[in-house]
Design a protein that fits this description.
This protein is 26% helix and 19% strand. By secondary structure, the protein is α/β, with parallel strands linked by helices. The chain is built from six helices and eight strands; from the N terminus they run ααβαββββαβαβαβ. The longest helix has 16 residues, at 3-18. The protein binds pyrazine-2-carboxylic acid (VGL) and zinc ion.
Length: 243
């Protein structure tokens, strides 16, 4: 560990000890100025794909607006992982696969309630490509998820059965990563579930709110997702907190 990293770590550790659980780890650092990402941090860019931006089949409102911000945030991180929703054409999460069901209705499956969506992010199709303008050449890993026909995966750590890992935890641990910073689409689904699972896997986690856009199902889904994230120790930050 370099001396300046050690000092930063000690400051962070002191901050964390002074507040409950892990909640203070970042606010303490931010209170002392902007937070400079280190080689123990990873930026996880979640599902910034054509299907999820205006014009796409499951467009998130203003989803395209985050692309320039994500590009500039990525430059602050030595470690960047990108994710792609990557479904089979007959995926269980598609309303089209269930007679009489419409998008945004739900069904019961083996692992619980599944929201049904318009067909989106089918493997190898244009809609599954990264959004135009997304430019992160130094990203070292692209995690694809949701490729098992019968299991969805909002989370980029663990599929919806809560049993099947994607492999990301092992990759991050082997690379010495301790903290995950997340952004992308959608705040209340793939970003939120990924942040919660990052915590469950033992990482610290922060979601960069202004570098995300939400679906907000039923008009309340977005705030409910934030509440759950914060309850699980996920930090809610703005991009201005990062140096
Ligand atoms: C997502 C719904 C279905 C997401 C993926 O990326 O948030 N949402 N599949
Ligand atoms: Zn999906």
């Amino acid at each position: 560990m370099h001396e300046h990293d050690r000092r930063r770590f000690l400051k962070l550790a002191a901050g964390a000890a002074a507040t409950a659980g892990s909640a203070g780890w970042l606010s303490e650092a931010i209170a002392q100025g902007k937070y400079t990402p280190t080689d123990k941090d990873v930026f996880i860019v979640v599902d910034v794909q054509k299907c999820f931006i205006p014009g796409g089949s499951l467009a998130v409102d203003k989803g395209d607006e985050i692309v320039p911000l994500i590009n500039s945030l990525a430059k602050k991180f030595a470690n960047v992982v990108m994710t792609q929703d990557w479904h089979t054409a007959d995926h269980v999460s598609f309303a089209s696969q269930h007679d009489g069901k419409k998008p945004f209705e739900t069904i019961q499956v083996a692992y619980g309630t599944q929201v049904l969506w318009p067909d989106h992010c089918v493997q190898g199709t244009e809609g599954a490509e990264f959004a135009p303008g997304l430019d992160i050449p130094h990203a070292t890993l692209v995690i694809r998820k949701g490729y098992h026909r019968d299991v969805d995966s909002y989370s980029t750590f663990l599929e919806a059965d809560k049993k099947t890992p994607t492999g990301l935890t092992g990759y991050l641990r082997q690379r010495g990563i301790k903290r995950c910073f997340l952004a992308g689409l959608a705040t209340d689904f793939c970003v939120g579930w990924s942040a919660i699972d990052a915590r469950a896997a033992g990482f610290k986690a922060a979601v960069i709110e202004d570098a995300c856009r939400g679906i907000n199902l039923g008009g309340t889904g977005l705030e409910a997702a934030w509440k759950e994230m914060v309850a699980k120790g996920v930090r809610r930050i703005q991009s201005t907190a990062l140096a």
